[in-house]
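task queued by scheduler; priority normal; single chain, no ligands, no partner chains; default sampling; output format set to structure tokens
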Amino acid sequence: MRIFGPLEAEIMTIMWREGQTTVKQVHREIVDWRVIAYTTVMTTMERLAEKGVLNRRREGLAYIYTLARSREDCTLLAVRQIVDEVLDGDARSLVRALR
């Protein structure tokens, strides 16, 4: 899994707080501080489900999204990606950088 892009991070922040929601509910919240199309939020949430970060199930005409990974799991994956891709697998470099 790749580190989240800006919109993915906004959506995941909402998902970690809510635990379960719809595209419509997420869009309503994001549109309060950002101009964004409903379909953009929908596509991004679909991609997060494809990445295995969210689960989705159809309920009537809408999809209900739930968390497939905790914030802690995603943080660990992001740190592992940084260590592997940026630091060539040398975790000691990360520890030194955090001192």
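post-processing summary
- The first strand starts at residue 20 and ends at 21.
- The chain has a mean pLDDT of 90.
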